[in-house]
Design goal:
By secondary structure, this protein is α/β, with parallel strands linked by helices. The chain is built from seven helices and six strands, in the order E-H-H-E-H-E-H-E-H-H-E-E-H. A six-stranded mixed beta sheet has the order 2-1-3-6-5-4, with helices on both faces.
Protein backbone atom coordinates (compact mmCIF):
# COMPACT_ATOMS: atom_id res chain seq x y z
CA UNK A 1 0.00 0.00 0.00
CA UNK A 2 1.46 3.34 -1.02
CA UNK A 3 1.39 6.49 1.06
CA UNK A 4 -1.12 7.93 -1.43
CA UNK A 5 -3.81 5.40 -0.63
CA UNK A 6 -5.25 3.60 2.35
CA UNK A 7 -6.15 0.69 0.12
CA UNK A 8 -8.63 -0.47 -2.45
CA UNK A 9 -12.34 -0.27 -1.78
CA UNK A 10 -15.45 -1.57 -3.48
CA UNK A 11 -18.99 -0.36 -2.88
CA UNK A 12 -21.95 -2.71 -3.07
CA UNK A 13 -25.17 -0.72 -3.38
CA UNK A 14 -28.16 -2.84 -2.43
CA UNK A 15 -31.38 -1.37 -3.73
CA UNK A 16 -34.40 -2.94 -5.36
CA UNK A 17 -35.48 0.45 -6.70
CA UNK A 18 -32.45 1.11 -8.90
CA UNK A 19 -32.29 -2.47 -10.14
CA UNK A 20 -35.92 -2.15 -11.25
CA UNK A 21 -35.26 1.11 -13.08
CA UNK A 22 -36.80 3.47 -10.53
CA UNK A 23 -33.87 5.89 -10.44
CA UNK A 24 -30.50 6.26 -8.78
CA UNK A 25 -30.52 7.43 -5.16
CA UNK A 26 -26.87 8.48 -5.45
CA UNK A 27 -25.69 6.28 -2.58
CA UNK A 28 -22.84 4.68 -4.51
CA UNK A 29 -21.59 8.02 -5.81
CA UNK A 30 -21.64 9.55 -2.32
CA UNK A 31 -19.70 6.64 -0.81
CA UNK A 32 -17.20 6.80 -3.67
CA UNK A 33 -16.69 10.52 -3.12
CA UNK A 34 -16.19 10.19 0.64
CA UNK A 35 -13.83 7.22 0.41
CA UNK A 36 -11.77 8.87 -2.34
CA UNK A 37 -11.51 12.07 -0.27
CA UNK A 38 -10.18 9.93 2.60
CA UNK A 39 -7.47 8.43 0.41
CA UNK A 40 -8.98 5.14 -0.75
CA UNK A 41 -8.79 3.93 -4.33
CA UNK A 42 -12.37 3.00 -5.21
CA UNK A 43 -12.49 0.15 -7.72
CA UNK A 44 -16.17 0.77 -8.46
CA UNK A 45 -19.76 0.32 -7.37
CA UNK A 46 -21.76 -2.83 -7.88
CA UNK A 47 -25.52 -2.29 -7.75
CA UNK A 48 -27.65 -5.31 -6.92
CA UNK A 49 -31.12 -6.17 -5.69
CA UNK A 50 -31.75 -7.06 -2.08
CA UNK A 51 -31.35 -10.76 -2.77
CA UNK A 52 -29.32 -13.08 -0.56
CA UNK A 53 -27.64 -14.91 -3.45
CA UNK A 54 -26.70 -11.67 -5.23
CA UNK A 55 -25.33 -10.12 -2.03
CA UNK A 56 -23.30 -13.24 -1.17
CA UNK A 57 -21.87 -13.39 -4.70
CA UNK A 58 -20.92 -9.70 -4.65
CA UNK A 59 -19.20 -10.00 -1.27
CA UNK A 60 -17.34 -13.18 -2.18
CA UNK A 61 -16.22 -11.71 -5.52
CA UNK A 62 -14.89 -8.60 -3.75
CA UNK A 63 -12.99 -10.67 -1.18
CA UNK A 64 -11.51 -12.95 -3.85
CA UNK A 65 -10.64 -9.82 -5.87
CA UNK A 66 -8.44 -8.66 -3.01
CA UNK A 67 -9.98 -5.32 -2.12
CA UNK A 68 -9.11 -4.03 1.33
CA UNK A 69 -12.56 -2.65 2.16
CA UNK A 70 -16.08 -3.47 1.03
CA UNK A 71 -18.80 -1.02 2.02
CA UNK A 72 -22.34 -2.22 1.45
CA UNK A 73 -25.04 0.43 1.38
CA UNK A 74 -28.66 -0.42 2.04
CA UNK A 75 -30.66 -3.41 3.19
CA UNK A 76 -29.72 -3.11 6.87
CA UNK A 77 -33.13 -2.37 8.35
CA UNK A 78 -35.99 -4.47 9.65
CA UNK A 79 -38.07 -4.95 6.50
CA UNK A 80 -38.41 -8.54 5.27
CA UNK A 81 -36.14 -7.88 2.24
CA UNK A 82 -33.39 -6.29 4.38
CA UNK A 83 -31.07 -9.31 4.35
CA UNK A 84 -27.68 -7.61 3.96
CA UNK A 85 -26.52 -8.17 7.59
CA UNK A 86 -27.66 -11.79 7.58
CA UNK A 87 -25.71 -12.60 4.41
CA UNK A 88 -22.71 -10.56 5.52
CA UNK A 89 -22.52 -12.51 8.77
CA UNK A 90 -22.30 -15.76 6.76
CA UNK A 91 -19.35 -14.40 4.74
CA UNK A 92 -17.33 -13.02 7.67
CA UNK A 93 -14.48 -14.95 9.26
CA UNK A 94 -14.36 -12.57 12.23
CA UNK A 95 -16.93 -10.02 13.37
CA UNK A 96 -15.96 -6.57 14.66
CA UNK A 97 -18.97 -5.86 16.89
CA UNK A 98 -17.38 -2.76 18.42
CA UNK A 99 -17.14 -1.11 15.01
CA UNK A 100 -20.75 -1.97 14.18
CA UNK A 101 -21.81 -0.56 17.55
CA UNK A 102 -19.77 2.61 16.94
CA UNK A 103 -21.71 3.13 13.69
CA UNK A 104 -25.04 2.78 15.52
CA UNK A 105 -23.88 5.02 18.39
CA UNK A 106 -22.73 7.69 15.97
CA UNK A 107 -26.08 7.51 14.20
CA UNK A 108 -27.85 7.83 17.53
CA UNK A 109 -25.93 10.94 18.55
CA UNK A 110 -26.64 12.47 15.13
CA UNK A 111 -30.32 11.39 15.25
CA UNK A 112 -30.02 9.40 12.01
CA UNK A 113 -32.97 7.05 12.45
CA UNK A 114 -31.99 4.35 9.94
CA UNK A 115 -28.50 4.16 11.45
CA UNK A 116 -30.01 3.67 14.89
CA UNK A 117 -32.20 0.74 13.79
CA UNK A 118 -29.56 -0.71 11.47
CA UNK A 119 -28.68 -4.36 11.94
CA UNK A 120 -25.47 -3.76 10.00
CA UNK A 121 -22.50 -6.04 10.49
CA UNK A 122 -18.81 -5.21 10.32
CA UNK A 123 -16.03 -7.74 10.17
CA UNK A 124 -13.25 -9.37 8.25
CA UNK A 125 -13.41 -11.96 5.51
CA UNK A 126 -9.97 -13.20 4.54
CA UNK A 127 -7.94 -10.00 4.48
CA UNK A 128 -10.90 -7.78 3.52
CA UNK A 129 -12.85 -5.59 5.92
CA UNK A 130 -16.60 -5.63 5.19
CA UNK A 131 -18.97 -3.00 6.60
CA UNK A 132 -22.73 -2.56 6.20
CA UNK A 133 -24.03 1.03 6.17
CA UNK A 134 -27.67 2.10 6.10
CA UNK A 135 -28.75 3.60 2.79
CA UNK A 136 -29.86 7.17 3.51
CA UNK A 137 -27.55 10.06 2.64
CA UNK A 138 -27.43 11.07 6.32
CA UNK A 139 -26.53 7.51 7.36
CA UNK A 140 -23.82 7.33 4.70
CA UNK A 141 -22.23 10.64 5.70
CA UNK A 142 -22.38 9.91 9.41
CA UNK A 143 -21.43 6.26 9.05
CA UNK A 144 -18.39 6.89 6.89
CA UNK A 145 -17.16 9.66 9.19
CA UNK A 146 -17.07 7.01 11.91
CA UNK A 147 -16.00 4.06 9.77
CA UNK A 148 -13.09 5.52 7.78
CA UNK A 149 -10.57 6.03 10.63
CA UNK A 150 -11.46 2.62 12.06
CA UNK A 151 -11.17 0.98 8.63
CA UNK A 152 -7.74 2.52 8.09
CA UNK A 153 -6.57 1.02 11.39
CA UNK A 154 -8.04 -2.41 10.64
CA UNK A 155 -6.58 -2.47 7.12
CA UNK A 156 -3.15 -1.54 8.49
CA UNK A 157 -3.36 -4.41 10.96
CA UNK A 158 -4.50 -6.85 8.30
CA UNK A 159 -1.67 -5.89 5.97
CA UNK A 160 1.11 -5.90 8.59
CA UNK A 161 2.93 -9.25 8.50
CA UNK A 162 4.41 -8.55 11.95
CA UNK A 163 1.03 -8.55 13.69
Amino acid sequence: MSAATHGRALIVSITDQLVHGQGDNGAGALVTELLAEAGFTVDGTVTIASDAVDIRNALNTAVIGGVDLVVTVGGTGVAPRDVTPDVTQEVLDRELPGVAQALRWSGMTAAVMDSIISRGMVGVSGSTMVANIAGSRAAIRDGLATLIPLAIHVIEELSDPEI
